[in-house]
UniProtKB/TrEMBL annotation:
<dbReference type="Pfam" id="PF06477">
    <property type="entry name" value="DUF1091"/>
</dbReference>
<feature type="signal peptide">
    <location>
        <begin position="1"/>
        <end position="15"/>
    </location>
</feature>
<protein>
    <recommendedName>
        <fullName>MD-2-related lipid-recognition domain-containing protein</fullName>
    </recommendedName>
</protein>
<dbReference type="InterPro" id="IPR010512">
    <property type="entry name" value="DUF1091"/>
</dbReference>
<keyword id="KW-0732">Signal</keyword>
Amino acid sequence: MVLLWLLFAVSKVSCKFEFTNIKCTSLDEKFAGVEYCYLKSVNRSYKYLSLKVNLFKTPITKIKINAALYKRFNGYRPFMYNITVDFLKNPSSNAAMNYLFGFFRNFSNINHTCPYDHDIIVDKLDINAANLQVTKVLPVPEGDYLVETHWIAYDIDRAIVKVYCSVS
Ligand SMILES: *[C@@H]1O[C@H](CO)[C@@H](O)[C@H](O)[C@H]1NC(C)=O
Ligand SMILES: *[C@@H]1O[C@H](CO)[C@@H](O)[C@H](O)[C@H]1NC(C)=O
Ligand SMILES: *[C@@H]1O[C@H](CO)[C@@H](O)[C@H](O)[C@H]1NC(C)=O
Ligand SMILES: *[C@@H]1O[C@H](CO)[C@@H](O)[C@H](O)[C@H]1NC(C)=O
């Protein structure tokens, strides 16, 4: 408990979250297309991430998401988490995935269980909200990170979204 509290207290004063890059790649243009995917800096304190992925074969009734965390040491190395969840069945079943979705929940239309019959949008997920998640919800150690997610529909890898960020 003391250690947790310490971590919490330390991270509270020192944590600063930044997005550093984003890359969205469709592996199957007939299935999914990236309409946009970018970071935008409005000013020093307001930076956000937006993306829109068009789905061409809707409704989609089977989708899994694999998320792996990488941390930069000497190049990006797998770090702690590599999880796959069956999104339409039970998206909240995995604590780590739940934490990851905590970043997007308020800014996207991906949080539901019905078959997907619409495009996927993340709208203006900003660093302040992300900062809240890495400082208040669960402290994350300092470093440069890459969150790589694979969107797997009907057991085929359809798209990759890579979000690079740093916590300092
Ligand atoms: C940054 O931009 C946001 C949105 O336009 C605005 O609300 C905020 O006041 C700006 N902050 C600074 C420091 O200019
Ligand atoms: C994560 O696990 C999957 C399935 O076991 C594997 O294919 C993939 O290479 C792993 N990714 C990383 C970054 O270790
Ligand atoms: C959607 O988000 C809310 C919290 O904002 C959560 O209670 C609910 O379980 C989520 N639903 C799914 C399907 O993940
Ligand atoms: C999402 O919204 C809820 C309720 O408005 C808020 O308590 C929570 O801190 C928000 N989370 C993020 C990551 O913005």
